[in-house]
Amino acid sequence: MFRRTFWFTAGAAAGVWATTKVNRKLKQLTPESLAAQAADKAVEAGHRLKDFALDVRAGMLQREAELGEALGLEGPPVDSDQGRELPAPRRRAALDHTARPTTTYSIPTISYNRNEDH
């Protein structure tokens, strides 16, 4: 009797555990969850890329200072705060919707006869 009760309880517990595990996995694979995971990874990659760009800029300023010192040129101090900030984003003229092109282009009309190729 106790043996059957033990195995019944063990089977029920294993079933509950497996059902819970499967339901968690199914919730992770929903489109909303996958989109949220992708967005989180994109934000994380953006932060890493920004940190990399700041490190490259700091190294560039340090190397420029070393070269300027070796050549006897005056330069900005290496430890200034301007080395830890990225420059302001630039606006491209192609993306500026207020600027209109001043020149217009026309396509010349060319007649083409396929029978002339044979």
Provide keyphrases for this structure.
mainly alpha
Fold and architecture overview:
With 118 residues, the chain is mostly helical. It is 58% helix and 0% strand. It is built from two helices and no strands. The model has no long low-confidence stretch (mean pLDDT 81).
Gist of the model:
By secondary structure, this protein is mostly helical. The chain has helices at 2-28, 31-71.
Radius of gyration: 33 Å
Topology pattern, helix = H, strand = E = HH
The overall average pLDDT, rounded, is 81
Query: How far apart are the first and last residues' alpha carbons, in Å?
Result: 96 Å
According to DSSP, the number of beta strands is 0
Please give the largest β-sheet. Answer: none
Low-confidence stretches: none
Helical fraction equals 55-70%
Shape designation:
flat
**What structural category arises from helix and sheet content?**
mainly alpha
Residues in β-strands, percent: under 5%
- Number of alpha- plus pi-helical segments: 2
Q: What's the topology here?
A:
Blueprint: H1 2-28, H2 31-71
